[in-house]
Every structure is written in structure tokens, then in C-alpha cells.
Design goal:
The protein is of the alpha/beta class. The chain has 17 helices and 14 strands. Bound molecules: flavin mononucleotide. Flavin mononucleotide binds next to strand 4 and helix 12.
Length: 446
């Protein structure tokens, strides 16, 4: 029997991944306080979530040409703090919840990221995870010394080498290298620590690495590539995969394909867990949940959508009348997520999409199509997706924080537990134990 994986989709920012969430009456406004994060951690741990994970982007959304005023004025994901620092109060307030953060392979050095996450893993006693992203938008590039985002597939080529270096370092201390014996004066065994001497196309890194192995070996690697190249990368490296699919049938296909991709590179598909993004809006009854959703739908502004579409595509959605179709040349200039653009184009057939089509079809800036209902209806949907199988678990997004998680834990978690789909308690102490992932063996290279 598979155990359902539950992940809280968090942000170290002024809103959830739903930009209008900070306007919700039940959202806490003290997002810049440690207590805010500690509280969310306690809520998720009470609900037996395996993981709380922070997404990240290295810049504020803005319209191209440098107009950021709307993002600040309307609070459109304009605050973004470092996710690792925000994980620490959450870690201090919990003992079993896994703690994940996003870091980019395009703008950091692998030694730095390997050290940061391995340290986090030790400080959380083996509960850390790293969401590997390649960073898709120009604003991030301009904050980090480039003019524009690196070309899509080239980002993944660099990321492959990045992961070779990170894993190389994570694997250079044997599990029993540390001795720390004051009587003999031996601190560690030099035979059990080595260099990696990496000299590649993008990186050079020599070692020895300066952080020993952790309780779970090293952090769990998360990945969410959706494109062909992104999925090849995920199949090679990802231990927990995030997917996003609006409907069950394509999600089932994506699940089968991802597992087959992992098998094709010699991995055991059962050792790769797939969690799909969802946004449950739940209450004691369906009618109450629908009222909650009606309130949520009143929160987004049009500018939220336009700005976040600009961020995702690197195209200035503020420069075009809402109902004017994009030309082929304009669509070809979209350079962020390819899968998002392709989904809209495919949905319209021969007709060229307008900015309004992008808003309507992608719902960017709005809460993604939610699962609205009472405990039974929403648990039915979770069961349907899990049993199909279209996923091994769920990345639960929130319309307001911490209210959406409190609702979910009150109304849906007990129902899933009653059905025997979701664990009643943590099986182990480390994140790997709680996800059903094996402890990595030193020296087994991909
Ligand atoms: C649940 C989920 C969380 C994600 N979190 C981030 C994030 O924090 N930062 C980021 O730059 N991209 C994030 N992404 C985007 C993916 O890393 C990836 O770029 C995107 O799915 C497009 O796939 P592609 O890169 O293969 O084109 C996330 C995607 C999903 C489904």
C-alpha cells in the first residue's frame, strides 16, 4: 500500500502563491516575523504533512521596461525573503515535518548550495529538501548579473553539471568518517573523506567538502520540470517530483511517463515520488466551501494577472490591449515556461490567443482551478487522483495562510486517514523515512 505524500506549498513572502492571498481577511499579515513561520510549521505537523516547501524567485514581478510600481502598490509577490532563513523558525518549532527550499542552479555555485543544504539537513536532523530550479525570468537574470534568462535547454545542461558537483560533494564524506574522540585525539578518518576534483564545462570545484553526512545522508532532491528537457532532468535527479496538471487524464499520462523516464535511466520508479499541485477550498459543507471560494474570487485584480503573466513569459503583458491577438512573432518571443504558452495555444486551436485568453485559460493571478467542497467531495477527488494513479501525493497550495491549511487539516486529513489513504503518524524521524525514500549510498554516482 502506497502512503500518500502531503506537501505544503509555502512562500517566504507577503502572500501565498496566490498573489491576492494577502488581501484575504483570514491571512496573517506578519509574514516577516519568525512566529508566522513557526505557526505554519506547527499547523502542518499537526496535520502530519511530510514536507513544508518554500518556492522562490530571485526578483519581483515587473512589467518589462522596468515598471515595478504596481507590484509594490498591490503586493503582487513583491516581498521575497531567503527561504532557508525562514525555514529555521519552522524547524525549531517542529520535530518531524520535512523542510524544503528552492535554490537556483543558474545563479549560485554548486559548492555553496551543497554546503547550505547539507548544513540545513544537519540542523534539522535529516529533514531537509532542495527544490532544484533553473530560473526562468529576465528580472532574476538582471538581479544576478545577466541581461536575460539563460536559454531554456542550456539552463538544464548547466543544471545537470551543477547536480553532478553537488552530489559529488555530498558523497565525499563516508557515513562513518567522523570520530570525534578526545581520548585518541582523532577527529575524523582522512581515508573516508576525499576530493571531487571536478573540472567541467561550467564549474570547477576541488573539495574536500566541509560538511559531513547527515542523518538521512543528504537532502532529498525535488524537481518540477514540465518540458521535455525539464522532465529528462527530473528523471535523472528528482526524488520528489512536483507536477501541475489541470485534469486527471493528462496527469495519469504524465505520471506513467515520468515513472518510465526514471526506469529508462536505470532508476527504481518507486523511489521517485510524484506530488501534484492542487488548491483545495474546503469547509464543513459544500455550500460553505462555495461561499469561501466566492470570496477568494473577489480578491485578484486584473493587474495581478498581467504582471504575473509577464513574469512567467518574459513578455510585456502590460503593453498590449487585452483583446488583441498575439502574432506568431510575439508568441515566439515568450521565453519563460514553454509548457504554459503551449497549453494556451493548444486550447484555442487555430485562433491566436489574446492577453485575456491567457488570463482566462491559465488563471494566472487567480487561485488555480481549486477543488471546492465539503470533506467527502474533496477527499473523493484526492482519492481518485491518488488511486488512478495520477500521483503519489499532493502539493497543497493555499488561498490564505494559515487558514487554508487549518481548514484542510480539520476537514480533509481525518477523512483521508479514515479511508486508510494517508498516514496517521510519522513513520520515522528523517524526511526520507517519512517519504519512503531510501538512504543514499555513498559513492553511487548517477
Ligand atoms: C509545484 C511547483 C513549484 C515550483 N516552484 C518553483 C519555484 O519555486 N521557482 C521557480 O523558479 N520555478 C518553480 N517551478 C517551476 C518549475 O521549476 C519549472 O520551471 C516549470 O514547471 C516549467 O518547466 P520547464 O522548466 O521544464 O519548462 C515550480 C513548479 C511547480 C509545478
Amino acid at each position: 500500500m502506497r502512503d500518500m505524500v502531503m506537501v505544503g506549498f509555502l512562500q517566504a513572502q507577503n502572500c501565498s502563491n496566490f498573489a491576492g492571498s494577502w488581501r484575504h481577511p483570514d491571512s496573517r499579515s506578519d509574514f516577516a516575523s519568525p512566529d508566522y513561520y513557526a505557526h505554519i510549521g506547527r499547523v502542518l505537523e499537526a496535520g502530519k504533512f511530510q514536507l513544508a516547501f518554500f518556492d522562490d524567485r530571485l526578483g519581483m514581478p515587473e512589467f518589462h521596461g522596468g515598471r515595478f510600481a504596481e507590484a509594490v502598490a498591490h503586493g503582487i509577490r513583491c516581498v521575497k525573503m531567503d527561504p532557508i532563513a525562514c525555514l529555521m523558525p519552522m524547524a525549531m518549532g517542529t520535530t518531524r515535518l520535512g523542510l524544503g527550499a528552492t535554490y537556483s542552479t543558474t545563479y549560485y555555485h554548486p559548492f555553496h548550495v551543497a554546503r547550505l543544504f547539507q548544513t540545513l539537513d544537519l540542523m534539522t536532523r535529516g529533514r531537509a529538501a532542495w527544490n532544484v530550479v533553473t530560473s526562468m525570468n529576465d528580472v532574476e537574470a538582471q538581479n544576478m548579473g545577466l541581461e536575460e534568462a539563460v536559454e531554456h535547454d542550456a539552463r538544464y545542461d548547466r543544471a545537470d553539471e551543477f547536480l553532478e558537483v553537488v552530489h559529488g560533494h555530498w558523497d565525499t564524506w563516508a557515513d562513518d568518517a567522523l570520530i570525534v574522540d578526545k581520548t585518541t585525539g582523532r577527529f575524523a578518518d582522512p581515508e573516508k573523506v576525499r576530493r571531487i576534483d571536478h573540472r567541467g564545462r561550467h564549474f570547477r570545484s576541488r573539495g574536500p567538502f566541509t560538511v559531513p553526512r547527515s542523518q538521512q545522508g543528504h537532502p532529498v532532491v525535488i524537481q518540477a520540470g514540465q518540458s521535455g528537457r525539464g522532465r529528462r532532468f527530473a528523471a535523472r535527479w528528482g526524488e520528489l517530483i512536483f507536477t501541475s496538471n489541470p485534469n486527471l487524464e493528462p496527469a495519469k499520462k504524465a505520471y506513467t511517463d515520468l515513472k518510465a523516464d526514471a526506469a529508462s535511466v536505470g532508476r527504481d520508479p518507486d523511489q521517485m515520488k510524484i506530488a501534484t499541485l492542487c488548491h483545495p477550498v474546503v469547509a464543513a459543507t459544500k455550500a460553505e466551501a462555495e461561499d469561501k471560494f466566492a470570496l477568494i474570487e473577489r480578491l485578484p485584480l486584473e493587474v495581478d494577472s498581467l504582471m504575473l503573466l509577464s513574469e512567467n513569459t518574459n513578455f510585456d503583458f502590460g503593453s498590449k490591449p487585452l483583446d488583441e491577438p498575439f502574432t506568431d512573432a510575439e508568441l515566439a518571443r515568450f521565453s519563460g515556461t514553454q509548457s504554459g504558452r503551449d497549453r494556451v495555444v493548444a486550447a484555442l486551436g487555430d485562433r491566436k490567443p489574446t492577453p485575456r485568453d491567457f488570463i482566462t485559460i491559465t488563471r494566472r493571478g487567480k487561485l488555480p482551478p481549486p477543488w471546492v467542497g465539503g470533506p467527502k467531495e474533496v477527499a473523493d477527488t484526492f482519492e481518485q487522483w491518488f488511486s488512478a494513479p495520477a500521483c503519489d501525493g499532493f502539493v497543497v497550495g493555499a488561498a490564505c495562510v494559515p487558514g487554508s491549511y487549518e481548514d484542510f487539516i480539520t476537514f480533509v486529513v481525518p477523512e483521508l486517514q479514515r479511508r486508510g489513504l494517508f498516514h496517521k503518524d510519522y513513520k520515522g524521524e528523517t524526511l526520507r523515512e517519512n517519504l519512503g525514500l531510501p538512504r543514499p549510498v555513498v559513492g553511487r554516482r548517477r
